[in-house]
Amino acid sequence: MKRRLFNLLALASLLLCVAAVVMWGRSYFYGDTIGGEDSPAVGWRRGGGLYSSIGGIEADWWLRRVTSSDPAGFSAFSHRVATNQRGLQDAYLNSLHGVRLLGFFYVHQVQTTTMGDDGKPIPHFQDTHVLLIPYWAVCAALIVAPVMYYRRSRAERRRKVQGVCAHCGYDLRATPDRCPECGTVPPVGNSKP
Ligand SMILES: [Zn+2]
């Protein structure tokens, strides 16, 4: 049962990994966004979003106070596909003084003013977290279970051919019905004389 669950997990992980590779390639041509805020009203709003762009997934989550003078944000969860604006995205991340390592990026910033339409700062509150995870890391994490599955099934196949216990590798030629070492009962048709 535990084994079947792992196999299912490995399969799901493999499918997600393939999807991540596709999104990785796509991220150099298109920016995909999904996200939104919990309320369209003036006042406090919590929001979050995912943005796939230029080799990574950016996760943003924030709390902000919206006054009538603020520009309107998206109020419901929305999906947006845009042509990638590589320069803009880089400039945006560079403008945030966060921690950057191997394509990862993280920053937590609190703004208390924002630029008004007339170019003058106006009071504003926004608490934002920005986390950028590179696609290589997403794919690496998702390929672990499929690789484990592949290695294990390959080892089991080899043991089956060699006439040894699939679980512990003990020689089963003398006792083909049950492994004397770990107690595993080989499947019918697996025993060799
Ligand atoms: Zn055994």
What does the model show?
- The structure is a single chain.
- Strands 4-1-2-3-7-6-5 form a seven-stranded antiparallel beta sheet.
- It is built from three helices and seven strands, in the order αββββαβββα.
- β1 (30-37) and β2 form a beta hairpin.
- The protein has one domain (2-138).
- The chain is of the alpha+beta class and 193 residues long.
- The structure holds zinc ion.
How are the SSEs ordered, and which strands pair?
Layout: H1 2-26, E1 30-37, E2 43-53, E3 56-66, E4 78-83, H2 86-95, E5 99-101, E6 104-115, E7 121-134, H3 135-162
Antiparallel strand pairs: 1-2, 1-4, 2-3, 3-7, 5-6, 6-7
Helix pairs in contact: 1-3
The structure holds zinc ion.
Zinc ion is lined by residues 165, 167-168, 170, 179, 181-182, 184.
In short:
With 193 residues, the protein is an alpha+beta fold. The protein contains 3 helices and 7 strands; from the N terminus they run H-E-E-E-E-H-E-E-E-H.
Q: What is the typical, i.e. mean, pLDDT?
A: 83
Structural class based on helices, strands and sheet pairing: alpha+beta
DSSP E strands, number: 7
Biggest sheet record: 7 strands, antiparallel
Q: What are the low-pLDDT stretches, counting only 5+ consecutive residues below 50?
A: none
Give the CA-CA distance, first to last residue. Answer: 30 Å
Q: Give the helix tally.
A: 3
Shape: elongated
Provide the gyration radius in Å: 26 Å
Relative helix content:
25-40%
Strand order of the main beta sheet, please?
A: 4-1-2-3-7-6-5
Quaternary state reads: single chain
Overall tally of domains: 1
